[in-house]
Structures are given as structure tokens and as C-alpha cells.
Amino acid sequence: AQSPEALLQPDLDFHSRIADATHNDLLANLCNMLSLALREALKHSNQRPNLHELALPRHKAILTAIENHDALGAQHATLVQLDDARTALDVVLGRDIGITN
Asked: What is the DSSP letter of 48?
């Protein structure tokens, strides 16, 4: 994608297809219900300047682990991506990104 806006729908589709692939109707419905919130979060986190350098390889790691039926690898890759997304939102929204306990 050439812009953060153009990346939004493919990113949402990625999340939706993973939920659908679980064949868990409850999870798929929950993801569908949360899609508006996810869309808004991605609109902000996708504004980060180095988005492509970080997000694309991390999404690829998630996909590769899923394709290889590597549950632990998929979990790890997902947690890395979620942590990065949180950091991206903090940066874009101007929050102090210091670690707090």
C-alpha cells in the first residue's frame, strides 16, 4: 500500500481471515463486533512513519506460524505485534512510552 489509508482495509481483512480460519463462530462474531474499534485503532497506529518496516514482517511471521501449524510461534508473533501496536498508538497519540508497572 502506498499510504496508511490504503493499508487499512488489507490489515482489517488479515485480522478477519484469521478469525474466520479458527472456525469458531463466537470468535468470528466477536471480531466482527470489534471491527469498528479495530479500524479506529489501526487508523492511528498506521500513521507511524516506519510502519512498513515493522508491521509487514510481523504480520508475515504470524501468517507463517499459522500456515506451519505452529501455535506457540503464532502466539509469540502475535504478542510481539500487539506490543508493537500498543507502542505505535502511544507514539502517534503523543503518550509517554516509558514502561510502567
From this structure: S
**Residue-by-residue pLDDT tens, the chain, 101 positions:** 677 677 778 888 888 899 888 899 998 888 888 888 888 877 777 777 666 677 789 999 999 999 999 999 999 999 998 888 788 777 777 765 554 54
pTM: 0.72
Locate all alpha helices (DSSP H) within the chain, ordered by sequence: 4-21, 25-33, 35-45, 51-67, 71-92
Q: Where are the domains of the chain?
A: 4-92
Please answer whether residues 77 and 65 qualify as being in contact, where contact means their C-beta atoms are separated by less than 8 angstroms.
yes
Place of cell 504470524: 62
